[in-house]
Amino acid sequence: MNLTELRREAEKAAKDLEAATKALEQRRAQIRESERKLSATLRELQTAERAFAQIRQPLSNLVGLLYQQPAGGEVAGFLSGQSNGDTLRTMATVSQLVAERDLILRDSGRLQKERERLAGEAQELRASNLLAEAQMGAEIETLRARSQKIVQSLTKALVKLGVKINKQGRPAAGCDPTRAASMSDFPNGLIPQAYLCPLQQRGNQLRGDAALAFISLNESYKRQFGRPICVTDSYRSLAEQQSVYYTRPGLAAIPGRSNHGLGLAVDLCGGVERFRSPQFNWLEANGKKFGWIHPKWAYVSPFEPWHWEYDPKIGSLL
After folding, report:
1. Which of 93, 182, 217, 268 has the fewest CB atoms nearer than 10 Å to its CB?
2. Which residues form a coiled coil (predicted)?
C-alpha cells in the first residue's frame, strides 16, 4: 500500500472514529434525557402518593370513629327496625365516607402499581443503556486501534523512505494526515512544530497531508530523473516570512498571507526553477496526480516557476 492509499485509509479511519464518538455522545445525551424524564415522573407519583396519604389517614380515622360512636344508639335502633331520621342520616354519611375511603385506597394502590411499573422500566432502561454504551465503547476502541495501526504503517513507510525520525524513532506527529483538519486553528506562520511533517529534504517541512503528497511526488520524480526534487524553501514561520518580504521585495507575499505559512507551498530548484525545463514540464504534467500544482498567478505575476502549492481539495480526491 503506497502513501496515498495509507493517507486515505488513515483519514477514513479518523472519520469513522469521529462519527462513532459523536454517536456515543448523542446516545449518552439521550440516556440522560430519558432518565431525567423518568425521574421526574417518579417524583410526581411520589408527590401524589403523599397527598393521598394525607387525605386517606384522617378519613380512615373518621370512619372508624363514626362506627364506634353510634353503637349504642343509632346503629342499634337501625338494626332493631326502630331507626329515626338522624340514624339514617348518620348511616348514610358513614356509607359515603367508607365509599370515599375505598376510592382513595384504590387510587393509592393504582399509583403504587404505576410507580412500581415505572421503577421497573427505569431499571430495564438503565440496563439497556449500559449495554448499548458498552457496545458502542467497544466499537470505538476497535476503531481507535485500527486508526493507530494505520498511522503506524504510515510511519514505517515514511521511515523507509528516509523521512527524518525523532528521538523515539518515529517521524514527527505532524505526519499524521488526520491532523490537517485542525490546521485552521492556527494563524498563518504560527503552526506548532508538532503539526508539521519533515520532508526527505533536510530542514524542510510541511503540514501532514501536503508532506505525504510531496514525498510520494518526490519518489515518482526520482524514478524519472534519478535524483530527488531540490527544495529551497517550504514552511515559513511568520518571522521567516517577514525576513523574506523585506530582503526580497516583490518576490514574497505579505507576511501572514503566504501559503508557505500554511505549510502548503514549496520553492524548488534543480531545474524546476527554469520555466519549460524538462523538470518543470514533468512536474506540470504529473504534479496534479499528487495534489501539487503550479498556481496560475505564478505563471505571470509575479513570475515564479519555482513556486508550487498543494491543493487540499485535489489531494482529498486522490
Report:
1. 182
2. 3-51
What phi and psi values does residue 303 have, to the nearest 5 degrees?
-75, 110
Buried b vs exposed e over 20-48: b needs ≥16 C-beta within 10 Å? Answer: beeebeeeeeebeeeeeebeeebeebeee
Convert the pLDDT of each residue in 62-84 to its tens digit.
656 655 655 444 444 444 555 56
All structural domains of the chain: 3-160 (1.10.287.1490), 173-317 (3.30.1380.10)
Please tell me the distance from the alpha carbon of residue 117 to that of residue 31, in angstroms, as a whole number: 19
In whole angstroms, give the CA distance from residue 271 to residue 83: 127
Query: How many contiguous H segments (helices) and E segments (strands) does the chain have?
Result: 8, 6
pTM of the predicted protein model: 0.67
Q: What's the rounded Cα separation, in Å, for the pair 311 and 81?
A: 108
List Cβ neighbours of 287 (8 Å cut-off, separation of 6 or more): 217, 293, 294, 308
What is residue 236's DSSP assignment?
-
